[in-house]
Amino acid sequence: MAISLLQLTPVSFPYFIRNSHPKLNPRTSILVHFVKSNPMSSGSDPGPVRRASSAKIFKVPDLETDQVDLIADQSFQRYFLSSSTRRRSGNGVAILWFRNDLRVLDNEALYKAWVSSESVLPVYCVDPRLFGASHYFGFPKTGALRAQFLIECLADLRKNLTKRGLNLLIKHGKPEEILPSLAKTYGAHIVNQVYAQKETCSEELIVERLVSKGLEKVVLESSSERSNKAKLQLVWGATMYHIDDLPFSTSSLPDVYTQFRKACQLYFLFRFEKLIICTPSFLNFQIEQVLLLCLILFVGSKMQAVESKCSIRGCIKMPASLGPPPPSIGDWGCIPSTESLGLSSQDVSKGMKFVGGESAALSRVYEYFWKKDLLKKYKETRNGMLGPDYSTKFSPWLASGSVSPRLIHEEVKRYEKERLANDSTYWVLFELIWRDYFRFLSVKYGNALFHLGGPRNVEKRWSQDIKLFESWRDGTTGYPIIDANMKELATTGFMSNRGRQIVCSFLVRDMGIDWRMGAEWFETCLLDYDPCSNYGNWTYGAGVGNDPREDRYFSIPKQAQTYDPEGEYAAYWLPQLQSLPKDKRNFPGKLYIEQIVPLKFGSTATTRNQGRYMASARKGNFGHRGQRR
Ligand SMILES: Cc1cc2nc3c(=O)[nH]c(=O)nc-3n(C[C@H](O)[C@H](O)[C@H](O)COP(=O)(O)OP(=O)(O)OC[C@H]3O[C@@H](n4cnc5c(N)ncnc54)[C@H](O)[C@@H]3O)c2cc1C
User: Which one is predicted more confidently, 596 or 39?
Assistant: First the structure.
């Protein structure tokens, strides 16, 4: 049996001050519009989505529940300590406040809570503000599909904690009210620390500050009768590189991605260096090879890039048993339903259905790396759009913290050792560095990431034309590749990286629409929504990102021709195109709905701007996926 061969051993945030331009806030009018015509709301016409209800659904990971449990257990064994090797040294109860780190493995906050106490109380607060309205335009802050994914994450976390001697306390309300109250209640057991994973964006930072303040007011009596205060201990844990290991402070983080690219080149040079050293003809070195080695060593010594200067820490090895839980907790609380969060539940009727939770995350790593052996060709397939296998699909679990990037790194290294190492195995790590980069940028730029002018404060005229925006949102622009991607997003909560870049460029460049409308719609819909990656990528796409050299225009016909040459993807999401000849599906003319706007650079027009845009488009898209245009 395959498994036995496992290689795995609407309340808004009025006080969240992201917006410094209140006059630009069109929330009210757009919210009304949204409720009337949201493709995800119950009264709307879902178009092909509903008509295609008999279409195949791809479960991600595509494994039965018992297989998922088995794979998770085996991963736990691999990444857990044998119980005797680590001892805890603290007293009383420590609270572990789960946020976007919904996992047991490689969870440093959980580990610290365990070491520093006799008993850990794991808590998740279902914060009503996460189910309110988005900041500028009043879209649902969390759509039904991500809410469902979160619910599955919580159920799985509770299951995995229970298997290891704990449980998960689920409370409905604001963390700044719940956590101090719990600290007070468990004061008798000397709770003095609340551990949590550190976040970096304004909404999350405000909650952190409020929790800290609330805890400071809780004065506890220790066993030695000395009074002390409860404290919030924030632990870094969201990235592959630890923030403390960066070769620069976040305030001097490079603004130009080239430094990262240089690091990447250096990586390949180092590979080449290894090749030379390993060769039996080592002594017959050509002079160029010697010079190359000198160059490598020189560049290496000068580089300030993460890859050359810092290493990735290993996963935290967790103890096999995390218990006992604190005494006298009668009611551990209910896992919410989508309805209790104020949302109508939405079934995935077509495309990919992601399963939430750490067990599913570990199973997807197993499925993609080991079972289907897809890692070895990731670099060639990653620009695909259709089906679960062209890319890892790790992002929803990374965003919820169901799996750590360090665990993925360790699995890549294991794969390289046990199967093969090639450009593809490296490239997954390369993409994870992009994820890290956006996280660190959010520390450097703070709220500027959410402002219209972005980190560079670029002044540009944007439109907020509702009709255009709605046609983009609903997938009725008349451009099949745009419409198909937007339908996929609304139906599944996912869109490929290629698709995201294309629809982003179309919205901001061809329609001239305020990029924040697109970013907030993504915030509503994406299962993998993460403020740093989302707003980071949108600011890049809109030309207001931190990198002044990036100015990207995606030619829609060229993208369709290159990435969907037979119109397979378009016809999957727009069944009315299925009967057309393959080469017409993306270019259906009058056989499809009318195009809502002309392209900024139509197929024949040549302007200076187009030349500039096209040159940068040829150079790269979003800076890092340039080779395959
Ligand atoms: C406009 C726009 C908005 C985006 N919003 C988000 C978002 O909210 N959350 C999110 O996780 N990603 C976002 N991305 C990045 C990227 O599209 C997704 O991470 C990727 O498509 C997820 O699919 P995957 O896991 O199969 O990726 P893979 O290609 O398998 O990559 C592996 C991992 O690398 C990371 N990664 C890859 N590309 C990027 C990137 N450009 N930026 C940051 N991390 C990256 C992701 O964690 C991903 O899971 C956005 C990209 C664009 C262009």
Answer: 596
Distance 169 CA to ligand 1 centre (A): 31
Flag whether 293 is in a domain: no
Q: How far is the CA of 219 from the centre of ligand 1 (A)?
A: 43
For the chain, counts of helices (H) and of strands (E): 23, 11
Q: Taking Cα atoms as reference points, which of 251, 237, 383 lies closest to residue 318?
A: 237
Which atom number of ligand 1 is nearest to the Cα of residue 399? 11
93-98 vs 193-197, strand pairing mode: parallel
Which of 446, 474, 499 marks a domain boundary?
Answer: 446
Cα atoms found within 13 Å of the Cα of residue 582, Cβ hemisphere only: 6
Q: In the structure, what pLDDT confidence band is assigned to residue 581 with cuts at 50, 70 and 90?
A: very high
Mutation to probe ligand 1, out of 440, 537, 622, 624 (largest number of atoms < 8 A from CB): 537
Give the DSSP letter of residue 133: B
Q: How far is CA 331 from the centre of its chain?
A: 32
Residue to substitute in 435, 438, 506 for testing ligand 1 pocket (most ligand atoms within 8 angstroms of CB): 435
In terms of residue numbers, what domain contains 197? 56-78+89-267+310-446
Ligand 1 centroid, distance to 438 Cα (angstroms): 10
Which residue's CA is the nearest one to ligand 1's atom 23? 393
CA–CA gap between residue 569 and residue 79 (Å, rounded)? 39
Same domain, residue pair 151 and 244? yes
What CATH number is associated with residue 475? Answer: 1.10.579.10
CATH of the domain at 358: 1.25.40.80
Number of domains in the chain: 2
- Determine the Cα–Cα distance for residues 122 and 194; give it in Å rounded to an integer: 10
Write down the pLDDT at residue 93: 92
**How remote is the CA of residue 432 from the centroid of ligand 1, in Å?**
9
**Per-residue pLDDT band at 299 (split at 50, 70, 90):** low
Per-residue pLDDT tens digits for 254-281: 886 657 545 533 544 444 444 433 333 3
Q: Ligand 1 within 6 A of 260 CB?
A: no
- On whether both 123 and 258 belong to a single domain, the answer is yes
Pairing of strands 231-235, 57-60: unpaired
Nearest CA to ligand 1 atom 44: 435
pLDDT for residue 98 is more than 90 = yes
User: Has residue 516 been placed in a domain?
Assistant: yes
Is 612 within the bounds of a domain? no
Dist. CA 246 → ligand 1 center (Å):
22
Q: Average pLDDT, whole number, for the chain?
A: 83
Model-wide pTM > 0.85: yes
Q: Considering only CA atoms, which of 76, 123, 514 is closest in space to residue 318?
A: 76
Give the residue, out of 364, 431, 535, 559, with the most ligand 1 atoms within 8 A of its beta carbon, to mutate for a pocket test: 431
What are the tens digits of pLDDT across the range 311-327? Answer: 899 999 999 899 999 98
